Predict the 3D structure of the following.
Amino acid sequence: MDPEIAKEAKRIAHVRRTSVSALVEDLLRGAAISPKTRHVSFVDKWTGKLRLKAPTKPDPKFKALKKRYGLD
């Protein structure tokens, strides 16, 4: 770390009656998380990407579920 930056960090910490570590922690907590590093939920990741495969033989349960969930 640049010695001048370290000196200024110590001065600011002293004025705020805290430690340099606490200043850094506050800075990191307040930093915005970029979209690339945020956690993407399973639902967000897969919504609209999965398709139903039609059964090879008649399947009443498949047909009923398609109708129930509006997938006709």
